[in-house]
Amino acid sequence: MKRRWNWRLWAGFLLVLAGAVGYLAVFAWYPVTRDFPWVSLLMFLGGALLLVLGLRRSFREPDLYRGKIFGSILTILSVAVVSLFCYGLFYKGRQMPASAAAPHLGQKAPDFTLPDQNGNPVSLADLLSGASTAKPKGAVLIFYRGYW
Length: 148
What we know:
Layout: H1 7-25, H2 31-34, H3 38-60, H4 68-91, E1 113-115, E2 121-123, H5 124-129
Antiparallel strand pairs: 1-2
């Protein structure tokens, strides 16, 4: 009896690779998929499902389907890709180095000039001097993650 090609093993491995490479090439450019890689994780889940089904098929029917050894190797490689992806994105990507030059809570900020919503330059000294309104007591600086 001729043995058949176990396509689920290859499709699962390629789906796992596409999830990892796709995040770096495509999904990291868009905030909806960059902040939390839900598309890549769904691709990993689909790839894992196909790998498990392919391995199960190759071990239950070894006379009919190929892939006992090579399927196990592809599964180990897929687990390694997913583990490295999760380690890099969820652990290493969240590790921010300490900045010695950053102002601390309650410390006065150095004077700076930035454009406002109309493109006009506004400095911190102008805001604190109260040129257009009554003398302010301070300014609140809000920093948020944007496109930089």
